Amino acid sequence: MSASREQFSSRTGFIMAAAGSAIGLGNIWGFPTQTASNGGAAFVVVYFILAFLLAYPALMAELIIGRHARANVVTALRGISTGTKSRALATTVGCYGVLIASLILSFYAIVAGWMVTYLLEPIALLAERPDAASWLTGFSFERNLLSMGIFMGMTMAIIASGIQGGIEKWSTRLMPMLLAIMVCLIAYVMTQDGAMEGLKVYLVPDFSQLSPSLVLDAMGQAFFSLSLGVGTMLIYGSYLSNKESLPKLGAMVTLVDSGIAFFAGLLIIPAIFVAQQNGVTVFTEDGQMIAGPDLIFQVLPSLFDSMGDIGLPVALAFFSLMTIAAVTSSISMLEVPVSFIAEETKINRKATTVLVGAVIFGISTTILLNFDQLFGFVIDLTTVYSQPILGVMLCIFAGWIWHRSNLLQEIQSGHPEIVGTLFWKIWPTYVRYFCPILILATFIQSVVN
Ligand code: PHE
Questions:
Q1: CA 411/CA 249 separation, integer angstroms
Q2: What is the Å distance from ligand 1's center to 317 Cα?
Q3: How far does the centroid of ligand 1 lie from the alpha carbon of residue 193, in Å?
């Protein structure tokens, strides 16, 4: 690739960006709600096992391929393929990844837009505009379109500014804020009545809850949370210096991502029980804990309302947390198609961002216009069906198609002492056999069930 290709300026810059991509609505919303609807701590245990056993090795495959190729996902996969058939497969898989990354962004921007409206609602109330506040939290098409548009605009503005001036700068600013807000919110919730009961549900596992669907949910969640399969981690890896140790950085990102998911559980699950203590309905008629959108947009806002004066700042803090988490993830999704098109066509980054952003805005608008038919469908198509399969394909590229000696050389780069370590001995074989088989087996048995 050209000598002028941008890179992250430092190790911290990369970690902030990659952790920013990984830590998103998937952690703060997805993980606690999945935990709630899968019976609590048993899900947490399975999730952690899968994150390190399956998602981490797959993450490594992306980072290693990306840094070696220093290119977008399509060019990278083609670059490590030598035969005509494997190159054709590379083009197919790469383009499918670009498509899925764009589709994930098209629904993510809608959901993130809702976070923005709930962030603006307390501000409207403070400004004594109750009419605006209720418009912001109503479910009109106009509100959904506007909030999605605002969110897409923020995402595009960051991506248009490039790697160091956009992705790295904003991830480095926003991630510490995210952590600080989260710690304050957890500390506050823990002092409230009912929190301890929630903590128990969250931390004491009931293994009778284990089931194939729990395992599939946990795997899907781990792949989504680590932003895998669609080339986001591959492209971030491609902006990383040769001096860095990939296995270490990958492990750090996995650890930070799982850690924040765990923290989010410490916030949300006890908050549900605090809400119950305050008289908010938190269980459905058949005794299930309310999860999904109702949890975020009904249970928690009712909880904030029931808190008195402090409710407003708490709501502000919570929805800022959600918005920050969402934007550091959405930029990594947009970077996938933008890097592909900019590198393939030589159109400059800003113009490409506007072009791609406009197309995704169009897709999101189509989803909003056909919400009942398309919203759930796009989520399932991308996260349940496509991400794990693309993850398998990337493992196959790393394990089977790529020349073994080049792979080993790339692992050593920036970390020569790795030779002889456990990672060195296990990972290349693991990513070749175990990863694809385990991912496929989990996928098939749960789809069949
Ligand atoms: N990891 C992000 C989250 O947890 C979502 C994501 C998926 C980001 C795929 C990039 C690519 O919300």
A1: 12
A2: 21
A3: 33
Q: Is 154 in the pocket of ligand 1 (CB under 6 A)?
A: no
Is the overall model pTM greater than 0.85, yes or no?
Answer: yes
- Could you report the per-residue pLDDT of 380-420, keeping only the tens digit for each? 999 888 998 999 999 999 999 999 999 999 999 988 999 98
Is residue 102 in some structural domain?
yes
Atom of ligand 1 nearest to the CA of 332: 10
First to last CA, the chain: 46
Structural domain harbouring 313: 11-381
Cβ–ligand 1 distance for 249 under 6 Å, the answer no
The string of pLDDT tens digits covering residues 243-299 is: 999 999 999 999 999 999 999 999 999 999 999 998 998 888 887 888 778 888 888
CA of 214 to the centre of ligand 1 (A): 20
Tell me phi and psi for residue 372, to 5 degrees.
-65, -35
Task: Confirm whether 158 is domain-assigned.
Answer: yes
Per residue in 38-65, pLDDT tens?
A: 878 899 999 999 999 989 999 999 999 9
Spacing, Cα 198 to ligand 1 middle (Å): 27
In CATH, what number is assigned to the domain containing residue 23? 1.10.4160.10
Answer yes or no: is 367 within a domain. Answer: yes
Atom number, ligand 1, closest to the C-alpha of residue 23: 4
Any ligand 1 atom below 6 A from CB of 225:
yes
Tally of domains in the chain: 1
Residue 226 CB contacts under 8 Å (≥ 6 apart), including other chains: 22, 51, 55, 56, 58, 59, 233, 253, 254, 257
Beta bridge partners of 283: 289
Residues 339-367 have pLDDT tens digits of: 999 999 999 999 999 999 999 999 999 99
